[in-house]
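Good morning,

Both structures are done.
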Amino acid sequence: MSILESVVIGAGQAGLSASYHLLRLGIEHVVLDANARPGGAWQHRWDALTMRDVHRVAELPGDDAPVHDHARANLAVPQTFAAYEHSHDLPVIRPVHVDEVFGDEGILVVRAGERSWRTRTLINATGTWMQPFVPHYPGIETFVGEQLHTVDYPGPEHFRGKRVLVVGGGASAVQFLGALAPLTDVLWATRKPPVWRTDDFTPEAGAAAVALVEQRVAQGLPPESVVSVTGLMLRPQEREAERLGAYAARLPMFSSIEPDGVRWADGSFERVDVILWATGFRPAIAHLAPLHLRSPQGGIRLDRDGRGTTAVADPRIQLVGYGPSASTIGANRAGRTAARAVRRHLAQLTVGVAE
């Protein structure tokens, strides 16, 4: 079996950016994507999410950004990604679900079922969409209504006439409340009081938020999303929900779940038909476990004090779309950084052989 210079896992924004830059540097590689079609996580978003609703989707390197209009995001972005893969002739193989990555006599082996690839370096771009997080509360398994996570969200019409409890203090929860409050009865519960941003989100503010995430990664702590430290803002399409009081009536978290509702810490009971968990995601990196990249603090330390993409525990491994690069803009930059780090590592291997 031939040995590749690099393997990229994931064909979302970060993976496509990394592949583009690897090609420009002349580095032999393949991109392994678990999805049957182009589009990364975007193809799995709900139909009601339009390009007007999403935060800015940055252009891929060497290409234009998707048009921001009323087109469905789960169609517009995948179409853009598919055209990008084709126009740049990116070496994407799909569907490939990677089970594990392990070392074998100095070479990395990427195993997916009965197939495997041997490579000198790896760029991991698996993001978070396939690793939804739902916190456990007593009685969660007894609830007879619907429990949905952001990944399962079917669009607002599904909830018409139902009493919905939205759980979570991030941007997704704010968007769900904005869509549901004009249609049906909603409650909002968060673990901590939401932090609202009242000033403009300037480039300087964005840089400061990213720096906070970098600090966690540099310490080997599990990363928090960039959005979690920027504060929340209401968009025009959420003003009607604000007028209806959906955001002002935020409640602290319940203490337990019962078959037809939730029990608050003061003993009072609230009947609900649906619990919508807008509780975020975790990095989808279980396949990297054999490489022992995690620090004692539970995260993966990256070089350059958290600003780089190289795993400190193993310089053959690059992580993009992880921690501070978990946004479309950040993922693009990280793809270039990772490709250059791969080139440096390969150059060091060549020098070692020559010596």
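Second structure follows.
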Amino acid sequence: MDKGTLTQGAQPAIFNLREIIDGKWIEPHFQPIVSLKRRSIVGLEGLSRGIHPTSRGLIPPHDLFHEAAQQGLEVELDRLCRHKALDDFRMIHSLTPDLVLSLNLNTAIFDQGVTGSGHLRTQVYEMGLQPQNIAIEIVESEVMDLKELQRFVKLYRNYGFLIALDDVGAGHSNLNRIPLIKPDILKIDRFLVEGIHEDFYKQQVLKSLVGMARQLGTLIIAEGVETEAEALHLLDIDVDLVQGYYFAKPQRHDRLEKEAVLQKVGDLGEAFKKHLLGRLGVRKFNMNRFYAYLFEIQMELREMHPIHFDLILQRMVERLPSVENIYVLDESGIQVTESIFSKNFKPHRNPVVFKPSPKGSDHNFKDYYYFLMESGLNKTSYLTEPYLSMASGNNCVTLSSVFKNVDRKKYILCLDINTESLSVDPGQ
């Protein structure tokens, strides 16, 4: 079940594992899995804690499973933990039948030849539960026998169980196992979630996982959410299902505070609404500024021969600190000016890899050129999706527009804008 790590500085508990298994000294705790958009609890993760037979103190799961591995008792302990979790969950299920119980599976059993026993299925039916209410969490990186893993997944998916791939994004996870397992759920490791609102790289990795999951028809659950800022950013990048201490710590089934969790979700919804309206307002204001810049530069260029374009751009870019780079293409997509950078631009990436396109470069494969010149849509301006700029190494969008100069020839004015500037409140 739950193999959480020890608290830093904590000492391993001293206990007799055989005594714990024989006496069933296991206490299940449950942590809510929340749908932020539905404002509801959709599931619970079952997490096992040992109880010391003498002191009655809780034994960390890491200690239990470490000792089980040493003594060859992993299968027995795993089955006992599942039995206790299912037994408590059926009481919850009787009151809230739509909840899903997420169970961690000790993947060591795949290497011990017991994957075809159907023991978990039998346990579920004996408790009066149905497989569709159970998600099996698998940490695939711990499995040595991949054929047994595939056999287990196929067998239990056919029974009706949901299959979840746990710890996605952790240092040891292998994304090549996703097509192997074809999971119904990807559980994002807390490493990617912690401080995500302040970490651009974590944001982009999680965005790519969200996009992939959407294409595969796979749900994503983000674990380890501990702050409002983390939760708001997860909502911002379309992660709906979350769990973590911000909403509730794992508790015994009779101590779950459903109303407190829902109140937390409701408060977060109101905070997100304000956050979203504020962000959209700032973005709209900034984009209006950039369109105004675009129009102002075009008005200057329209009166000029191309040989003067560079001078105009150089003069204008000094007044536009938010714009990273400006250049002009002709109607064939050939760059007719140099790439003119703002004086505030400071390269942070390898200049051998990331360098601006020189005059004469061909841009007719770029999406903005296609939409403005080749698509037949008669568009006069175009804004790209964010992309990694090979000119600067920054995340940018390109705002472009068609104009005619004094010779009545068509040109495309392009402004590369650092995406960070789109979210900066100019009033701050």
